[in-house]
Amino acid sequence: MLFHLYPQSTSSLLNQSLPSCPELAELLSSSNTRSRFKMSAAERQAAFEEARKQMWKPPFDARFPNQNQTRHCWQNYVDYLRCQKIKGEDFAPCEYFKRVYTHLCPGFWVESWDEQRENGCFPAKI
C-alpha cells in the first residue's frame, strides 16, 4: 500500500540493490568484529577514562549565567595570560584557564587576539 503513494520511478528506485562495499563487508564479518571489539576490563576502563577526558566541559561560572558565553571566553583568555605573567609559563594551574577558553572560544577569535597582542593593540591590561 505504501508504494502507491510514490510515483512509479521512485518505487523502482526502492527495489534496486545497494552497491557492494568491501570495507563494510569486512567490518561486519563475524570473526573480524569479534576480535576487533574484544577488550579486557582494564582496556575498557582506560578507553572510558580517555573518552571522559575528551568530553570535558567547563563548569558553571556564576559570573556568566547567560547563554551567550562570549565574556566567559574573553575573561578566561585574559586570566590565562595574567596567570602566565604572574606565575610563569610553567605554572600548571594556569592550564585550567587555557582549557576553558579553548573550549568556549572559536579559534579565529584566539588567533585575532594573539595578533593584537603581537601588534601591541590588545584592549586588555595584562
From TrEMBL:
Major localization listed first in the record, in broad terms: mitochondrion
Listed GO CC annotations: mitochondrion; respiratory chain complex IV
Protein location: Mitochondrion
UniProt KW keywords: Disulfide bond, Mitochondrion
Keyword Transferase: no
Keyword Disulfide bond: yes
Pfam family, one: COX6B
InterPro entries linked: COX6B-like, CX6/COA6-like_sf, Cyt_c_oxidase_su6B
Protein name: Cytochrome c oxidase subunit 6B1
Species whose genome carries this gene: Plakobranchus ocellatus
Source organism phylogeny: Eukaryota, Metazoa, Spiralia, Lophotrochozoa, Mollusca
